[in-house]
Write a structure and sequence with these properties.
Helix 5 packs parallel to helix 6 and helix 14 packs across helix 19. It contains 19 helices and 14 strands. It is α/β, with parallel strands linked by helices and 515 residues long. It is globular. The strands form 3 sheets. A 6-stranded parallel sheet has the order 2-3-4-5-6-7.
Length: 515
């Protein structure tokens, strides 16, 4: 049954949803629901063509609802929505953690916030405050500042401060910590068996720092922590949200009173077990304030289905009306904060979208770690890039280019790139792969590009097979560096953003005076 969109409960039910949509202009249904009380919208790469187009899109929605919260998953680095077609102008968290200069992290985040705000985005689902304690983690990796809780904490706080100084609300994620998982919650429900003492000493340290820095929002994780709740994942767990996150410090909680946003409710960790409608009701009852939906489901029918599920839950007594009103109030409060902290309030009217400055490239250059067992002699002509390409996780997306072939082509015209994937290597074998690379390279220097080679046996085998016959090959690791350095030289970029590729290309070409 579809309910009338007129009463307070129905408006509150719309207010707590953060849906996405398809298209590069605001659909009629989005504008209509904004007029009925929809509190937020979410932008994804599918909604982005140019900064000017995004600014026009958000301005049209804001004309319908001045305090609408416009959210985006813009971490910089590997996870970018505004620059999904080109690769990010900002290095990601792992690169910033490798530099370990909180002032630089704050500057990068402020510049990213300035770009977002000029396009009309007011809530960034970033930064990741996860401590990447499991190097085999398939979904966090370079999205984390690192494996040390204190390092992650100081950079999380700096990032929050920088982003919010530009008028964009930070949303630290994924509470209470997604770094010790071996499963991607896009596909299934991860389980973390750490005890509460470990959780407090490791996972919660960056979240405490984020709260102290004044983060406006926290995103919950779809992970099961039996030490906290043996049955429900954190997103649906009162023990995690109302208890651990909201409870006063004297009661063992973190004392947080801001907005709690769920991770995407259509992710299979929730949808395959509880369904999105029931999951939405359970999340609100547990203490969440806003439901992220639209990464996969991006239609009016889904919004109405979730709205009606919340209204019916209130009518049935399964969700307290006061709890729904409280959640809607927090969403509206964030919209008001964004209105009062944007360029219009602090710096005068924005003149339109702004281009990123050079701080991202400067940071990427500083993040490089170059190791060589012998003096490095740059190539005098074009090279051949052998890119070993793993399957990208859903958070990163397949549409975002990575690597450094384009940057090397700019510095060394005539450079060619070959892409090699697991299925091809498995089908054809290592001998054929080596022959293909050698045949394509001819007498050129070979540059081998890998990404988290420690997580992919096929990639490690291919790398060592090539180095056995071409030990002068340059190896560029664009994921989390774990294996002992190899190659002449070995370059660790700590991420695959476009600026990380450019910084590595400068070193390979011998044009690294800017480092």
């Amino acid at each position: 049954m579809t309910v009338a969109a007129t009463d307070t409960v129905t408006r509150d039910a719309l207010a707590v949803l953060q849906p996405g949509f398809t298209g590069t202009t605001a659909p009629d249904w989005v504008l209509r629901r904004l007029g009925e009380g929809l509190g937020s919208v979410a932008l994804f790469a599918r909604n982005v063509v140019t900064p000017e187009q995004v600014a026009a899109l958000t301005a049209r929605m804001r004309a319908e609802s001045p305090d609408v919260v416009v959210a985006a998953d813009e971490e910089g680095g590997d996870v970018t929505r505004l620059e999904a077609r080109t690769g990010s102008s900002f290095p990601g968290n792992h690169a910033l953690g490798a530099v370990d200069d909180p002032a630089l992290t704050r500057e990068v985040a402020r510049e990213l916030g300035r770009v977002l705000r000029s396009c009309g985005v007011t809530l960034d689902w970033a930064p990741s405050a996860d401590v990447n304690s499991d190097p085999g983690n398939p979904v966090i990796g370079v999205r984390s500042f690192g494996a040390d809780p204190d390092l992650v904490a100081r950079h999380t706080a700096a990032y929050v401060e920088g982003l919010q100084s530009a008028g964009v609300a930070a949303c630290v994620k994924h509470f209470p910590g997604h770094g010790d998982t071996a499963v991607d919650s896009h596909h299934a429900l991860p389980r973390v068996d750490a005890d509460l003492a470990t959780l407090r000493a490791r996972e919660l340290v960056p979240f405490r720092a984020a709260l102290a820095a004044g983060t406006r929002a926290v995103m919950s994780a779809h992970i099961l922590l039996p030490a906290l709740d043996a049955t429900l994942p954190a997103t649906l767990s009162p023990a995690a949200l109302t208890g651990l996150l909201r409870a006063p410090e004297r009661e063992g909680g973190l004392g947080y009173d801001g907005l709690i946003v769920t991770d995407g409710v259509e992710m299979r960790a929730i949808s395959a077990t509880y369904g999105i409608a029931r999951g939405t009701v359970l999340a609100l009852a547990a203490g969440a304030d806003a439901i992220c939906v639209g990464g996969g489901l991006a239609d009016e029918e889904t919004v109405l289905r979730l709205r009606d599920a919340l209204v019916e839950a209130v009518r049935a007594g399964d969700l307290a009306e006061e709890r729904l009103a409280e959640a809607a109030g927090r969403v509206r409060a964030l919209g008001a904060w964004a209105r009062d902290h944007g360029p219009d309030a602090a710096e005068g009217a924005a003149s339109g979208p702004v281009a990123p400055g050079d701080v991202g490239l400067r940071a990427a250059r500083r993040a490089l770690r170059v190791t060589s067992e012998r003096p490095y002699v740059p190539p005098t002509g074009p090279v051949y890039v052998a890119a070993f390409t793993p399957v990208a996780n859903i958070a990163v997306g397949d549409e975002t280019p990575w690597g450094l072939g384009a940057e090397l082509e700019r510095l060394l015209p005539g450079t060619a790139t070959g892409t090699y994937r697991e299925a091809e290597v498995t089908e054809r074998g290592l001998t054929a792969l080596v022959a293909n690379v050698l045949g394509s390279a001819s007498d050129r220097r070979i540059v081998i590009v890998v990404r988290d080679v420690h997580r992919h046996a096929w990639m490690a085998d291919a790398l060592h097979a090539l180095l056995a016959v071409r030990p002068d090959a340059v190896v560029v690791e664009m994921g989390v560096p774990q294996a002992p350095p190899c190659g002449a030289p070995h370059i660790a970029t700590h991420g695959a953003a476009r600026v990380c590729g450019r910084a590595a290309a400068e070193v390979i070409a011998g044009n690294d005076a800017g480092r």
